[in-house]
Amino acid sequence: MSEQSLSYEQARDELIEVVRRLEAGGSTLEESLKLWERGEQLANICQEWLDGARARLKATVTDSPAESDSAAESADTAVQ
User: Structural domain boundaries of the chain?
Assistant: First the structure.
């Protein structure tokens, strides 16, 4: 599975497993370094998903009040 096709949930679940394995110990230094590097990659993937979701939410919230304000201004103009 390529990095681009990992969903947030898949990356998060794999990251949880990497952390579990690191915390359990028993790996060689080389294995631990590979796990750490993979964990960093997975954390970056999760952060990209979260940043994208935050931007979409912000755009939606930002657009909504502007539309409401425009509708209110139109209503005020019609009443006058």
Answer: 7-79
Nearest CA among 8, 13, 5 for reference residue 52: 8
Distances (CA, A) of 44 to 3, 53, 58, 75: 10, 14, 21, 47
Which tokens go with 18? 């990497």
Spatial neighbors of 38 by CB under 8 A, at least 6 apart, are 14, 18
10 Å CB burial of residue 8 (0-12, 13-18, 19+) is middle
Per-residue model confidence as pLDDT tens for the chain (80 residues): 456 689 999 999 999 999 999 999 999 999 999 999 999 999 999 999 999 999 999 999 987 765 555 555 554 555 44
